[in-house]
Amino acid sequence: MGLITLSIPLFFLLMGIEWLGGRLRGRRVFRGPDVFTNLALGSAQTVFTVVAVGLLAGAYLALHARRLFDIPSSSALAWAGLLLGVDFCYYWFHRASHRMNLAWAAHAPHHQSEDYNLAVALRQGPIQPLVSRVFYLPLALLGFPPAMFATAAAINTLYQFWVHTELIGKLGPLEWVLVTPSHHRVHHACNGRYLDKNHGGMLIVWDRLFGTFEPEEEPVTYGTVKPVRTFNPLVAALAPFRELVALCGETPRLMDKLKLWVMPPEWRPPGTGASVPEVVSGRPRFDVRASRRVALYVGGVGALTLLVTVLFLVRSASLSQSVKLVFAAWFLASMGGLGGVLEGRRWGPLVEVVRLTAAPLVIAAL
Questions:
Q1: pTM for the model
Q2: Same domain flag for 184 and 75
């Protein structure tokens, strides 16, 4: 098991502490539908990573076979250099993900939540690893062993969990060096002055060096510039790609159709008439009014689905690729079905009947 999977109990423990801290301050930190979507999208990325592990690791392994240096994993200096290198590469991946449409579509689900809490840290774009892994390939060529890189990347990811909270204020001198909750609140804002700022993972020094730093000074409005307005995780994951495809279809010139995928999200092709929406500070958050029965169903069955997903992650190393693909299809149905039930869609219960009927067979295959 990887560090991320082993850390799952800690994630929930810290979320419980954050919930309690919010209650003691008289604040509602979590909203049930948003937490459900966050956890489902985080699980979806993990499932995708397991299914596509060969593809994701292949390029790194191929470059490492042609490495320039032999770097020993027993060297403390090598570990320090790798952690610094991973964070540097993460900065450029993260920055590119906000400035190029195709990469943004993969990353956007992480920013869709209009809340800001530790559950949002778990919300990820399912196919984002296909983009992010490209930026780490220079580390393979330098000679950092794959297992060593995987550990350093996991440490970088784990660090970023705690900065997703509103309950921790500014941290004095640490603000000059480390990424803090204050810095990352700015990053998750869609206020004009905050857009595309503070991309660092562990160190804020990259943003200070490369001109993307912005301090937290005014109230934050969370979410994407164009709100996704759904708690269905499957719809939320696909929405950025659907919008890009639709805009591509409206674009008259072939060169602009091709250009669209690598241009910044605010760019609009000539002749489309499309415009970028303006963010209204303090805009109302999207919400759904689910009955108690629906909330209990989505919460209870959703929790059981996540437990089955953890079982899948624990046993993934011994599973065949066909079983992994079957589980991935079942999990996608779970995301769509539970999301449909939560939002009162007529097709939601039907999807749930089908995938719950298949659940015993899926579990037996794990």
A1: 0.94
A2: yes
